[in-house]
Amino acid sequence: MRKEFRHMFRDRRTLTTLFAIPIVQLILLGYAANTNVEHLATAVLDLDRSAQSRDLIATYQASNYFDIVIYPADRQALGRLIDRGEVRTGIVIPPGFGTALTRRERPAIEFIIDGSDPAIANTAFASAQSVGQAFSLQVLTELLHSDRQEQPGVDVRPRVWYNPEMRSANYMVPGLVGIILQMLSMMTTALAIVREREQGTMEQLIVTPVRPVEMILGKVTPYALIVFINTCAVLVLAVLWFQVPIHGSVTLLLFLIAFAMISSLALGLLISTIAHTQQEAMMLTYFFFLPSIFLAGYIFPLEAMPAPLEFVSQFVPLRYLLTIIRSVVLKGVGLDMLWREVIILGLFSVGILTLATVRFRKRLE
What pLDDT, on the 0 to 100 scale, is given for residue 293? Predict the structure, then answer.
């Protein structure tokens, strides 16, 4: 272990990279992984040019979902704007719109959405409808000269728990902590052992009286310590930079993160028994890691997955790590609510560590 620490501190470039990677990743991905779609560039073809049409346009502009950036002359110009990607949405207000509203009719407007990006299209679709309904209610209130609160109907008052502002950073950044933790654990462990073999110093270690278990602990412990320090730094950055509140116990969170690191380190050890070179170890790490991101529910909700993929995701340790981190950070729950995930992660750790140790011993023999 002492040798590994000395080797690590002598290689200043690698040490700096180890500390810099999680910080840079969190800052870049924390901003990039933003699912809040706002300020969509919108073109308006107003064929009515009435006070009512201007009120409708102002309502969409004030919603923050749509930025009215241009008023094309005709439909062909509007189509070209969407084709070139200069605007994402287009509103077409027909002639007679204001007159129809005055007559208490229900005039239709066209809301054209660029569907090439389904995520943006879905948000634009829902926002267009909600803003239109709000405008309709406002018109109805004015025509009936009545208070909105006195109108009959169902008054739905949604309440959002745990993330009332529905900030995507509050959901995505804690997930990033788990992803950075697992990637660094796997990569550093796998590379450290494979590098020893590539440099031909593994044979020197084998002839020493050190037992295989002691050798593994000596190689893994320094990197586990570095990864844990990195995880703490990333958590501090998430709180101070991205303003993500931690509602649960910080001590419990750090303990569970340290516990989850065992399975990640075991995966790295398993990779080191398969790979022969550092390049192979790097490729295998990405081979295991990339599918884990998609199957763990970091980007896409598990409930939206097809049944076979949802079944496969149950064998991905990252899924349970993300559940633990998000539950403690967002919901503030304790161990009594997370015992199932902890037990499953423990079983994964024992199984992967046993398999990796057996393979490692065979490689030494």
Answer: 84
Contact (CB, 8 A) for 142 and 222: no
State the pLDDT at residue 8: 66
Tell me the two tokens of residue 68: 């009215």
Q: Sign of the C-alpha dihedral, residues 160, 164, 167, 173?
A: negative
Contact (CB, 8 A) for 331 and 248 = yes
In this prediction, residue 3 has a pLDDT band, given cuts at 50, 70 and 90, of low
What is residue 43's three-state secondary structure? strand
Cβ proximity of 113 and 92 under 8 Å: no
Alpha-carbon gap, residue 232 to 235, rounded angstroms: 5
Helix (H, G, I), strand (E, B) or coil at 70: strand
Question: Is-contact 39 67, C-beta < 8 A?
Answer: yes
For the record, the structure tokens of 128 come out as 């267009």
Tell which residue, 71, 78, 77, has the closest CA to residue 54: 71
Q: Could you give the 3-state DSSP secondary structure of residue 91?
A: strand
pTM value > 0.85: no
CB atoms within 10 A of CB 128: 22
Task: Establish how many alpha carbons lie within 13 A of residue 195's alpha carbon, considering only the half-sphere containing its beta carbon.
Answer: 13
